[in-house]
Amino acid sequence: MVKRALCPNCLKASSACICSTIKSIDNVHHLHILQDPSEEKKALGTARILKLSLNNVQLTIGEVFNEQDFDIQNCYLLFPSEDAIPAASLTEVTGFNKESQFILLDGSWKKAYKLLMSNDFLQALPKVSINITSKSNYRIRKSPREDGFSTVEAGFYLLSQLENNTEKFMPLLKSFEYMIDYQIAQMPAEIYQRHYVDKLKD
Question: Could you tell me the CA-to-CA distances from 122 to 78, 119, 171, 201 in Å, in that order?
Fold first, then answer.
């Protein structure tokens, strides 16, 4: 079987390359994406959009991470919990500053939870939540949770609310939408309707 040629930059099939949509964004706060190994080569993975777009970002693949690689004293984890601090309210939190770092877990809910449980230092970090203003546009991947979002969407909301600047980070969603629209265009209409549109109604 002949393997499809991949773009070495975005790691997607050459025909589905999203590089032309990527815009450089100078984000203030460092974003560290911890990616479950199963997500690395997924055609519909979105963490790569954040990695290519943001100037202040790091992506690490694995299941267990070294606590020494993080500024634990000034670091937050984006993860839903009852005591999570809304990202837009962090300016009122003592110790929050431009050097504060944020960790985002990349994987399904099950995999993200496993990453959390496999790393004690992540569990000890203060949790941050985001205010979602619309449903996910991940039209060809259904999360088991109503508040489920793609990694790039989560990053968009987090950074927009930290800097109170939605327009600045809108290119992230533009690249994401381009990727989704391309994939849908490759499917027969009836397949998309049956496997994605109709299932979302269930």
Answer: 10, 6, 29, 35
Q: In what order do the strands lie in the sheet with 30-35?
A: 57-61, 30-35, 101-106, 75-78, 127-129, 85-86
Question: What percent of the residues of the chain are helix, what percent strand, and what percent coil, each to the nearest 5?
Answer: 45, 15, 40
Residue 3's H or E segment, with its range, is none
Write out the two tokens for 113: 């939870």
Whole-model pTM: value is: 0.86
Residue identified by tokens 């460092």 is 30
- DSSP characters over 13-53: BGGG--GGG---B--SSEEEEEE-GGGTT-TT--HHHHHHH
d(CA 137, CA 153): 8
What does the pLDDT profile of the chain (202 residues) look like in tens digits? Answer: 556 788 999 988 888 899 999 999 999 999 999 999 999 888 778 999 999 999 999 999 999 999 999 999 999 999 989 999 999 999 899 899 999 999 999 998 899 999 999 999 999 999 999 988 766 555 445 544 445 588 999 999 999 999 999 999 999 999 999 988 887 777 655 654 554 444 544 4
